[in-house]
From TrEMBL:
One of its GO terms (molecular function) is glycosyltransferase activity. It comes from the Eukaryota. This is Hexosyltransferase. Coiled coil: none annotated. Transmembrane segments: none annotated. Its EC number is 2.4.1.-. It is an enzyme of class 2 (transferase). It is a single-pass type II membrane protein. Residues 1-28 form the signal peptide. Keywords: Glycoprotein, Glycosyltransferase, Membrane, Signal, Signal-anchor, Transferase, Transmembrane, Transmembrane helix. It comes from Abeliophyllum distichum. One of its GO terms (cellular component) is endomembrane system.
Length: 356
């Protein structure tokens, strides 16, 4: 099994954030950090990492190739707070794959949480995965406060830097959020023809695009011309197929960062890492069938109200929005759609939960 650590190519910054990720918040280095508007969650202790049961081994079907060109590369973020979602997502991908042994997972993390890594290993003993540290200092100064605190975590921004972080021999990548389950063969999404586009994702042209940006944006004579000669539509960055070579060559990381710098000066939007993606790419992506991102199952960003499914075939269910199925199931007030997530839940409640 491949398992390696990636360190920043900038030694000083890398070292700095290594300290930030290992020190307690009361230390001087971390205290300095809290002078910015971004707060790290408290470092987790053993008690914070849930316990999971071991997933079965998933084996390739007879038709599967076994060379490097047959690999399917999937990137996801990894941290203790969303671990239960990550586990369910991984299980769902493997379970519906014809060639599960060909799927390689690339996990990005900000804080070094050994229990999280060992938890992945013990839950999926046969999983082909690599872990990469995302240097949060790269993005901390660029994050502006959004309408939901969870969206402001540096790890949410890691998707912008994936092409820099992953090895150059990875030419194509599927990025997946941690609050979703795949209910179809990921190979179908992987094989999608991007034509000349850098990114493919389901796009939603009936959503009112105006609402993703503030009046300050639309009333600014220069900014409001951003989408000229484009037909911009909303797309969700939780499910994306990315041509990594085109992303690198086109310097898309810089392009997305550029808008985050502008956002710091002129408040153009209220969501987190999504709007800068829209500014760069909306109207210029390869649309994928909506079945690949039935999003918004977590409800809205404020209350996380229950929502029902949109009609039509479904290959992927996504609990974007405030409500997360594992939290709503635990609270014993689940939404109907949460019962579709439950079969993928590998969480093993502690024994005393059942006793008494
Ligand atoms: C979209 O929303 C804006 C602002 O809320 C509104 O002015 C506009 O009429 C809406 N457009 C459509 C097509 O509904």
């Amino acid at each position: 099994m491949a398992f390696f650590w990636s360190f920043s190519s900038v030694p000083l910054l890398g070292l700095l954030s290594l300290f930030l990720t290992t020190l307690q918040p009361s230390s001087s280095a971390a205290a300095h950090l809290t002078t910015t508007s971004i707060r790290f969650r408290k470092p987790s202790t053993t008690a914070d990492v849930p316990v999971f049961r071991e997933a079965p081994a998933f084996r390739n079907g007879e038709t599967c190739g076994s060379s490097t060109v047959d690999r399917i590369h999937v990137a996801m973020t990894l941290d203790a707070s969303y671990l239960r979602g990550t586990m369910a997502a991984v299980l769902s991908v493997l379970q519906h794959s014809t060639c599960p042994e060909n799927v390689v997972f690339h996990f990005l993390y900000v804080r070094n949480e050994p229990q999280v890594f060992s938890s992945i290993k013990s839950t999926f003993p046969y999983l082909n995965f690599k872990t990469y540290r995302f240097d949060a200092t790269r993005v901390l100064s660029l994050i502006s406060k959004s309408i939901r605190q969870a969206l402001d975590q540096p790890l949410n921004y890691a998707r912008i830097y994936i092409a820099d972080i992953l090895p150059a021999n990875i030419k194509r990548l599927i990025y997946l959020d941690s609050d979703l389950v795949m209910v179809d063969d990921i190979a179908k999404l992987w094989g999608f023809d991007l034509n000349d586009k850098v990114l493919a994702a389901p796009e939603y042209c009936r959503a009112n695009f105006t609402n993703y940006f503030t009046d300050a944006f639309w009333s600014d004579p220069v900014l409001s011309r951003t989408f000229e000669r484009r037909k911009p539509c909303y797309f969700n960055t939780g499910v994306m197929v990315v041509d990594m070579d085109k992303w690198r060559k086109g310097k898309y990381t810089r392009k997305v960062e550029y808008w985050m710098v502008v956002q710091k000066q002129k408040r153009m939007y209220q969501l987190g890492s999504l709007p800068p993606f829209l500014l760069v790419l909306a109207g210029n992506i390869k649309p994928v069938h909506h079945r690949w991102n039935q999003h918004g199952l977590g409800g809205d960003n404020i209350e996380g109200k229950c929502r029902s499914l949109h009609p039509g075939p479904i290959s992927l269910l996504h609990w974007s929005g405030k409500g997360k199925p594992w939290l709503r199931l635990d609270s014993r007030k689940p939404c109907n759609v949460d019962h579709l997530w439950a079969p993928y839940d590998l969480y093993r409640p502690s024994r005393h939960f059942f006793e008494e």
